[in-house]
């Protein structure tokens, strides 16, 4: 079967779809990944066919923009990047389409795959990596630093969703997307982030129900299959430099701001100082060395990339942005988390990790050397948190996210046009 996998986003957004492609190939199918050229090496490492849907320079420019991590301005940047991806990738998907032998797998924002599904009558599965993609009047996802309106009446939540669509999301996403749809002879859609986001043959959530319990008003065709938990750590050993640093002293704290930004200079500077105050060693993980302090003590090391599954079981705790991939890898490793959410799904993921009893949250405006040091001391000295981490790690290890997702997708059958 020809399986077209279209993924839009950063490293953490694309990697689970590489894992899906790898599993499809293992089962004898012919998957092809469509993503930005910056991620071609991930597909090649997994021996997958790959089609670039944008240049790596476009990705670098987006991540290097300081507005990319701002909850409001970052959404506008994301909308422009996503629409550019739609226009670039739709013709490429059409070119590789094999009538009667193709199913389409799309990430949450891979709307070009949704267009192909309509224009070519291809069965389509949308895969959401985080629970924040699902609106609910019962337990609404957190969409910012103010929380998730947990105590608000249902009618207030309904009003909030509608207001967010009309004033913010529709102008950024729905209106420009409808211009593309009309150009293809398709009817316009309303409120793309409401029901339309899940109006497809199959909707999958790559997270377990104990992390985000299913709500009564979530899509009926939704299946939850657990975290994907793929990051090369199963096969890539730690480098000699990382191994040497780990062996030189006590287990360090790992700090990462994620791969979706390159403007976290203040975060890494404050983090290094927090470790000096709290007496911890530190690893600063940043692809761009310009983000880390120019001078650091011997107790602080910088690395551009380390596979999480190889490293995380050996660190004392992790401080991160709350991306769903990093959150789930930390749950698997059974280590305490200090989460500093900046935008998108990160606020919701952070609250869910805190509710599990394995994490604390510290907003960026409050994150400084003293506050981070206090939080790290509390996290690493709390026996109850350590016990909860061990329990949740066992639950996470039972995930069959990739396998279950592939099983569900393969139940679909290509349609003859």
Shape descriptor reads globular
**Contiguous uncertain segments of 5+ residues:** none
Largest sheet: 7 strands, parallel
Beta strands, count: 13
Percentage of residues assigned to helices: 40-55%
What can you see in these coordinates?
With 417 residues, the protein is an alpha/beta fold. 43% of the residues lie in helices and 13% in strands. The protein has helices at 11-26, 40-45, 56-64, 73-96, 111-120, 154-183, 240-247, 265-278, 308-311, 324-333, 346-355, 369-380, 383-397, 401-410, and strands spanning 2-6, 30-35, 49-52, 102-107, 124-128, 202-205, 222-224, 253-256, 282-285, 300-303, 317-320, 337-339, 359-361. The strands form two sheets. Strands 3-2-1-4-5-6-7 form a seven-stranded parallel beta sheet, sandwiched between helices. Strands 10-9-8-11-12-13 form a six-stranded parallel beta sheet, with helices on both faces. Helix 5 links the parallel strand 4 and strand 5 (124-128).
Topology:
Layout: E1 2-6, H1 11-26, E2 30-35, H2 40-45, E3 49-52, H3 56-64, H4 73-96, E4 102-107, H5 111-120, E5 124-128, H6 154-183, E6 202-205, E7 222-224, H7 240-247, E8 253-256, H8 265-278, E9 282-285, E10 300-303, H9 308-311, E11 317-320, H10 324-333, E12 337-339, H11 346-355, E13 359-361, H12 369-380, H13 383-397, H14 401-410
Parallel strand pairs: 1-2, 1-4, 2-3, 4-5, 5-6, 6-7, 8-9, 8-11, 9-10, 11-12, 12-13
Helix pairs in contact: 1-14, 4-5, 4-6, 8-12, 10-13
